[in-house]
Design goal:
By secondary structure, this protein is mostly helical. The protein is built from 15 helices and no strands. Helix 1 crosses helix 2 (46-55) and helix 1 runs parallel beside helix 13 (281-288). The model is unreliable at 3-8 (pLDDT under 50).
């Protein structure tokens, strides 16, 4: 997820490690959200708390991926057609592949409206993150010019206003002022852009930033535990136990921000294995969170909810998270090195012709 690269540019392994961690948190979040776990509100158990705990990482992971993209893309002078083509073909491949497999196996009915959705996966938000990120990348050159035209003080004022409207309000009021996923991504992009443009320097170490983010995770999870306790008497609190887990919530934004700063400051030599695994993270998302794969994976293959009362729930879900991440990574690496490499040269040629045409005529 985020900042898909077309060329062989060497990436920073500290940031690539952060991508891997973020995707593991997203997979864990999906285990919690889509497995069908049901726990009685009047009873607080270790299993219930564990499911709530692994839920917290999903939106942290999303925010981190967008922060990473903003940090690197803010310096890009223009979009690369090749990246857009590669991104779209990756999404399109998994859309058509999942549709075909589930239709052929008779697990899903065929319909023209369903086919239309899978033929236009970004248009119909088959993966909400992919659609929002595609638009973010598409408008990034114009966004870069806008952000760079602001002086430092105006930039800060803009971030404060957007923080209040799109983060503070949703956290404490429950509604934002005219926001959506794309606008939220624009805000995170601007935050990361500010960090890159003004090269914020201080004596805080990367380890300390990460420790702060871990502390905030504990406190945020603690809020869910408190709501659980109150919920045993007042059901309203039980149904809103994870209210601070949304990607716009102040605690999640701060956790993502400090974790991102922490990994930026960590010194990590180039590691080919980390970079290899990281290159597959977006594919991991597309595979396991496909609308057909999702219920099949969590409810049919692993039957996670059947372990709701089991003493083995914690080790079982940890195993499931790593198995899903590993298998999806292998599938995506196979797609890259078996199929994508075959048409990469053609993509580059088409992209170069398109970019030359645009430069000459616009």
């Amino acid at each position: 997820m985020g900042e898909i690269k077309l060329d062989k540019e060497v990436r920073q392994s500290n940031i690539e490690l952060l991508r891997i961690i973020a995707m593991l948190m997203i997979v864990a979040h999906h285990v919690s959200m889509h497995s069908g776990f049901e726990f009685p509100i009047e009873k607080i158990t270790i299993n219930r708390l564990w499911v709530q705990f692994i839920q917290i990482g999903g939106k942290i992971g999303v925010d981190i991926f967008v922060l990473i993209s903003g940090y690197f893309l803010i310096m890009a002078p223009k979009i690369k057609i090749g990246k857009l083509l590669k991104f779209y073909l990756q999404v399109y491949t998994y859309s058509i592949l999942s549709f075909s497999i589930f239709i052929v196996l008779g697990r899903k009915p065929f319909g023209m409206n369903i086919l239309k959705r899978h033929l236009l996966p970004l248009t119909f938000d088959l993966w909400w993150f992919a659609s929002a990120y595609f638009m973010l990348y598409l408008i990034s050159p114009f966004l870069n010019k806008l952000l760079k035209s602001l002086d430092k003080k105006d930039y800060q004022k803009m971030l404060v206003v957007l923080s209040i409207c799109w983060s503070v309000f949703p956290t404490f009021v429950g509604r934002s002022l005219q926001s959506n996923s794309l606008l939220w991504f624009l805000f995170l992009y601007a935050v990361a852009g500010y960090i890159r443009i003004y090269d914020i320097k201080n004596k805080v170490s990367g380890a300390k930033y990460i420790a702060i983010s871990m502390g905030l995770i504990v406190l945020t999870f603690g809020s869910a535990v408190v709501f659980d306790l109150l919920g045993t008497r007042i059901p309203f609190f039980a149904s809103h136990a994870t209210v601070l887990y949304s990607m716009e919530a102040v605690p999640i934004v701060l956790i993502s921000f400090f974790m991102f700063l922490g990994f930026l400051k960590i010194t990590l030599n180039y590691n080919w294995f980390i970079n290899l695994i990281s290159s597959a993270t977006f594919g991991v998302y597309l595979i396991h969170d496909n609308c057909y794969v999702r219920p099949f994976l969590w409810k049919t293959v692993f039957k996670n909810a059947a372990f709701s009362e089991s003493p083995f729930l914690i080790p079982y879900t940890i195993m499931v998270i790593f198995v899903v991440f590993t298998v999806c990574t292998m599938i995506e690496l196979g797609r890259i090195y078996v199929f994508e490499k075959r048409y990469l040269k053609l993509i580059n040629q088409i992209a170069n012709h398109a970019e030359n045409y645009l430069e000459q005529n616009f």
